[in-house]
Amino acid sequence: MVNKFLYPNGGSETYIFELGKKLHEMGHEVQYFGMEHEGRIVGNHAESYTANMDFHSTKLQKILYPFKIIYSYEARKKIRPVLDDFAPDVVHLNNINFQITPSILYEIKAYEKQNKRSVRIVCTAHDYQWVCPNHMMMIPSDGTLCFACRGGRFGACTKNRCIHNSRIRSLLGSLEAFYYKNRRTYALVDTVICPSEFMKKQLDTSPVLAKKTLMLHNFVTPPDMEEETGAWETIKKRLPERYVLYFGRFSEEKGVRTLLKVCKNMTNVSFVFAGTGPLTEEVSRVSNIRNAGFVRGKALKELIAGAAFSLYPSEWYENCPFSVMESQMYGTPMIASSLGGIPELLSDGVTGELFEAGNAAQLMKQGRKALLPVQIHPVNRGLLSHQDKLLYPRVRKLLCLFNQFLHRIASVASPDLWDHAVSTVLVAPFGNL
What is the DSSP letter of 119? Predict the structure, then answer.
């Protein structure tokens, strides 16, 4: 598996760790490639990783970043010992742009040619990076949703300062996108897994990717209930008897500023926020919000299950958010915005309710309605019949895909090889800037 982060950091990391675990349980060997970090929890036998890159650092090393984020010679060099040692059948890319860079695709192909063996390259698209240089299809300075770069018109990123509102960084983003478009680099990928139909439609606007995409929603797995019992007991003592929950990143694009307006106007309702982010101070200043901080595992499961309902007011084109699936898994109705891939996960009026993104008045109205006492809300009945669809069918489909790749390789190499089930997968992370 290839991913820029090899430690718990977000949805893509949750995805690769759980997928790697399932592949291992099936008898496949899995190793990982990405950046070195003190919090790294997975790795490879060759102990080969790229140096950690922090784009917000003030160190002198930042001067070299413009030369690294477009094409990383370091990543290409460092992945080779892993390929030589591990000899993977499948390389699974996740978030790689900027920190790892698509340069590694050329090394995988060089390894394949020199060793005269077939290596399948699969990528799971966790964001819109390959059709939008800032990966969000949003102009950050004003929150405008944007499709300007689709079709390879990447100059719009520079014009609108789409990366950190910086002309220089946005120019680098445009140059990176043009570079790999002109080299047709992404044509080296065999299959692109899109976790939502919305994502698939965006990637299909690229002629290089259009015939390589397939849609397969993400999956969620229940936490180990024997772990972190102390964390839940501590959080539980501070919880109100009845509360409405938001869990996720405290940021503008997640709709948190809109949600804060709602909280301030519903002073008789207790809200619990679980997460961190740039709006943490604003969250902490609202009197009827209890900030539980970053919560995971058993504590998060119990926090979600105990809520009257949860909220997901995102204001950008979400792909396949884990928060929506986790709320359904634990039987908690959700009110969420109707953007991106969210409506594919949440059936309006059955497993939750949708509202217009950014519309605080509509969110407040639906929130008040959801708090009315009812014996069995239709949403709850929908949740009960929906929970089993979130895990096993999606995991099976994804693992079947890998098995198909491995079976083709094994059949070509030796008809008997597949029977011994000695298959290998390398998973590497792609990161966002």
Answer: -
CA 398 – CA 218 distance, rounded (Å)? 9
CB 297 within 8 A of CB 309: no
pLDDT tens, residue by residue, 225-260: 555 567 888 888 889 889 999 999 999 999 999 999
Q: What is the pTM of this model?
A: 0.85
| Strands 191-194 and 424-428, bridge-based pairing | unpaired
Torsion sign (Cα): 371, 373, 379, 380: positive
Helices (H), 184-331: 197-203, 229-236, 256-265, 280-284, 297-305, 322-329
Domains of the chain with CATH codes: 11-219 (3.40.50), 229-389 (3.40.50.2000)
Spell out where 44-119 has E strands.
90-93
Nearest to 243 by CA among 268, 217, 272: 272
420, two tokens: 């011994």
Rounded to whole angstroms, the Cα distance separating 49 from 67 reads 18
pLDDT in tens, 104-124: 999 999 999 999 999 999 999
Nearest to 386 by CA among 296, 341, 326: 326
